[in-house]
Amino acid sequence: MMNEVRLALLGFGSVNTTLLKVIAGREGAIKDAYGVRLIVTAVWDSKGGSISTAPGMVALTKVGQHPVALTSLPVTECTDLDGLNFEALLSHKAAGNVVSTFPGSRSCNGTDDLKGFLQSDQYDILVDGAPFAHGGGIGLEAVRTALTAGKHAVLANKAPLVAAFSELVGLASATVDGSDPQGLVAAPFCPRLRFSATVCGGLPVVNLGTMDLALTTTQFSRVEGVFNSTTNYILAEMGAGRSFEDALAEAQRLGIAEAEPSLDVDGHDTANKLIIIANAVLKVPTGPADVRVTGIKEVTPVMIAEAAAEDEVFKLVAEAQRTDEGNMMLSVTPKRVPRQSFLGNVSGWEMGIVFTSDLFEVISMKIDEPSVVPTSSAVFRDVLHCALGSLRGAPSVASS
Asked: How far is residue 317's CA from residue 297's CA, in Å, rounded to a whole number?
């Protein structure tokens, strides 16, 4: 029996387009290993969306052993059993087209169409790959709607979690009627809300912290890391003699830095990742106001040269430090670290983290991520977790 799991993609930039390539490349292996076929029934970008004319299927979503009631809102007459064609959709996007003009699908515009679809029974998992927006943006509204409808949500977009972590965990942990029959709100992680790609891309920071470490009730005394490859590159180039301005311009030319780079260089991207770690792993309710943030603009070549003379390098370091009173002090700031230390060796495109705790002592890990593939693969991993977790013990799953 082949189980079809339907994805709705919010955002069709590098993360979600690469996700489709990853899925396509593993299609046979997924079918053989898990008996699952992933299809896409809707895609939205900043200009609108396209909805497949695929037939509605019985949703697979459950919370524990409690079926989730879903409201069926038919979108269109159905003719295509396969959802949106991956290859054709990617070619359409590569040609510079917006997804709302994708041939053979229903074109949609505006948030009302998006919300109506997300309240329907035409998908199983929402994948939020929308750009970051302060306050959560459209991603937050979409994730809220999906979770309220009893669906799964997989996030590469940090904004909804930064703006409303506790709210989304509550929605993901309860059944649609608001009850929490199995006490899932207090669980280490929520099976319907996955976001491992939001922190250090393909590095399993969230999974390690929320599953393996949290299950032991370990107490963290310190977490520190280098979470942003753009600032890492700029600081390294400054160490080679460039000014901040020249290093930033080169990073933009190479496509490492955005045209508007303040989210990276002012430290806020790193802070957002620390906020997610604080909430999810450290269990400390945290928002942007709780993190002291300093970017790298004030770091000068002279400061870098002085550090180098003492065999140290500058890194933009995120840190959560437990005080003697038991509170967590959270900061993002450029720091001098020994060149031969773990963080000192997180270089170039790499990102890394160090967990210090009572039971596991010191765990360090890093990833070299010169492309978006590891981030998209983390989304893929989360999608499979959602799909397989729902299929176990779920008798009313669509199959072919």
From this structure: 14
Q: How many helices (H) and strands (E) does the chain have?
A: 13, 15
Instruction: Report the half-sphere exposure of 247 (CA within 13 A, side-chain side).
Output: 22
Spatial distance between the Cα atoms of 263 and 313, rounded to a whole number of angstroms: 22
Which residue, among 270, 269, 277, has the nearest Cα to 165 in the 3D structure? 277
- pLDDT per residue as tens digits for the range 44-85: 998 899 998 754 433 333 222 222 222 222 233 233 447 999
How confident is residue 250, by pLDDT bands cut at 50, 70 and 90?
confident
- DSSP string for 10-27: E--SHHHHHHHHHHHHTH
- Give the model confidence (pLDDT) of 167-193 as tens digits: 999 999 875 444 444 433 333 445 689
Interatomic CA distance for residues 217 and 235, integer angstroms? 37
Q: In terms of Cα–Cα distance, which of 191, 202, 139, 123 is closest to 369?
A: 202
Q: How far is CA 318 from CA 98, 134, 225, 315, 329, in A?
A: 37, 20, 5, 9, 11
Specify the amino acid at residue 367. I
Percentage with pLDDT > 90 across the chain: 70
Taking phi over 0 as left and psi of -120 to 50 as alpha, with beta for the rest, 159 belongs to alpha
Q: What is the dihedral of CA 378, 289, 271, 252, to 10 degrees?
A: 110
Residue 81: count of CB within 10 angstroms of its CB? 12
Closest Cα to residue 114, out of 1, 250, 267, 8?
Answer: 8
What is the dihedral sign for C-alpha 226, 344, 342, 230? Answer: positive
Dmax (CA) for the chain in angstroms is: 70
- The pLDDT, as a whole number, for residue 173 is 85
Residue 307: in which H helix or E strand, if any? helix 301-309
* 8 A C-beta contact, residue 352 and residue 364: yes
Mean predicted confidence (pLDDT) in 209-238: 91
Cβ 388 vs Cβ 6: under 8 Å: no
